[in-house]
Automatic annotation (TrEMBL):
<protein>
    <recommendedName>
        <fullName>Peptidase C39-like domain-containing protein</fullName>
    </recommendedName>
</protein>
Amino acid sequence: MVNIKPPFYDGYWYCYSNSTAMLLGSIGENISSKLIEPLTGVGLGAMFHERSGLPFFSGAAGDPDKGITKALEILGFKFMEKNKEEGEAPFDELAEVLEESPAVIGPLNMSFLDYNPDRPKSEGVDHFILVYKIEGDKVFVNDPAG
């Protein structure tokens, strides 16, 4: 493992591609989120939201976590995925993973990320961040939203 402090890239709207670029930067790979974004397939397309009468600019199957997987596969990286639905936060398991590499985690409910005073206050806004260290009860993150 290359032990480089992850770079920081900001950008609230493309948190999944920015977090992925930070992850790759932590191993010495300089791949722009501007390249990762289209490889995810997430933002490609538009749909008409009938109830609101407004267009919604996103792919119909635009799950960012699936998009990250696809982008990393296209770029030729080997990686591990884990899924935790509900219940207790798996901090012990995450700490083990972080011994090898930082980790992109998400989708997280952004309203619970109380370190960010500008976060949305209502639930339902998915967000992705990079976690790179756990020390005691502190979790160190690079959050593209600041």
